[in-house]
Amino acid sequence: MSDTDALFTSLRQSADADTVAAIEQLVRDAPHRALNRINVLDFAATRGLNQERAIAAFLHAARLGLFDLSWNVLCPSCGGVLDANATLTSVDRDHYNCAFCAAGYEPMLDETIEVTFTVNPRICKIAAHDPGTLPIWGYYHQIFWSSGVDLPDEDTFARRIQDITLDSVELPPGEKAILSLQLPATSIIVFDPVTHTAQFFDVKGEATRDRQHFSLVFDKAGVPTGSMELRPGPLRLSLENHSELRVLPTVWIAAAPLNELIGKRKPFLTANRLLTNQTFRDIYRTGTLNIDQRLKITSLTFLFTDLKRSTELYERVGDLVAFDLVKAHFRILLDIVASEGGAVVKTIGDAVMATFPTPDRAVAAALRMRDAMAGLNAEHQGEDLALKIGIHEGPCLAVNLNDRQDYFGQTVNIAARVQSHADSRAILATGSVIDDERTTGLLATAGLQPLSGRYALRGIADELTLYEIP
Q1: Which pLDDT score, from 0 to 100, does residue 250 have?
Q2: What pLDDT shows up at residue 438?
Q3: 8-47 burial string, b = 16+ CB within 10 Å, else e?
Q4: Which residue segment(s) compose the domain that 220 sits in?
Q5: What does the pLDDT read at residue 350?
Q6: What is the average per-residue pLDDT within 294-317?
Q7: Are residues 16 and 140 in the same domain?
Q8: Cα–Cα dist 435/429, whole Å
Q9: Do 356 and 308 fall into the same domain?
Q10: pLDDT per residue over 427-449, tens digit each?
Q11: Backbone phi and psi for residue 24, each to the nearest 5 degrees, phi listed first
Q12: Do 199 and 318 fall within a single domain?
């Protein structure tokens, strides 16, 4: 048995069998380009696999050394990868600039950081492990544009991109090149995907026969995106590579065909969704974030639970029985959270703090929790476990607290306060949860109509409208 076979045998012990079989077939039969920056959501969708099981399987595969994770900072406009990192701790800048779009962006865990998987070189050596060996269009396809950009296959992409390319060149370190171009009256962009350098030309006015001149230098630091006006006609473009890497300057017509080629999108695995995944939190318990790192999330759903009158429970049934009941309650809740695509952040006494990528998953989990507690009580012929549940959605910060990945912000505070107002067996949620269209559909299917009321939450200046899910 080869080392790779042994690793897949180990993977089958911890991950879904169908997903493992699909991953093994991918590694064995797929072209090498398909083993680079794998989009797990697309992988699952094209094979009819469960997304959560696919994510879990790839995480276990990465733990075994079959794949390497990459945390890629994206441009939300063009979908280009602005920075690729082996760990989330390396996403350490407050601002990232996209030269291609001439715009800057703040990194957001749920919008502009993707997580992809690339086969480990010990399993299969592919060209993308050494990007400097890729042909120019292969570099754009496999390295520059992210897994969320729905590009055609690499051969089709190369054919279509050349239709809007005036010229391109591979320029080794320290080398120079001169391009002689005939500029049409349109917008032109000179772009290098390696150093992320761009120069825009607004070509307009009366055509000229006189040769125009422009020089562009590529270095490791990159240069601010520039723009200048030229006239239709000849251009002598001088290019010089001062970086330590091969650069790939390309001259494109920046018009509708380019936008059509790179403008389609597909879902991708965000950093936020991965952090809100129980398998990830189980495998990567520490070291996800640096102690002073603060990363923004625009939307995350928090679910808090607590057992009502748990002290009375210990007095009523005794420590041993109460401990077994509470332990069973935790096991049920943790299984439900994981199965709904969420993750338990921590337990505090008899309380649970969990996160979900979307409000409807939190509501689905809450409904299942309530039914499960009713079943557990019936099994023990009593009403000993009275579960209170509160749900809220909003922006927050991902932080490192007590050597564990945690969350901070007013959204967290409100979610905890909402739970404190819930009665036994009650599910209380805020408007941002109930108003989500996916939640609306879920509740309508279940035949549930939330009941609204005004509540004063401790530490919150204004009263909030909360909704009880009957």
Answers
A1: 97
A2: 97
A3: bebbbebbbeebbebbbeebeeeeebbbbbbbbbbbbeee
A4: 165-254
A5: 85
A6: 82
A7: yes
A8: 10
A9: yes
A10: 999 999 999 999 999 999 999 99
A11: -65, -40
A12: no
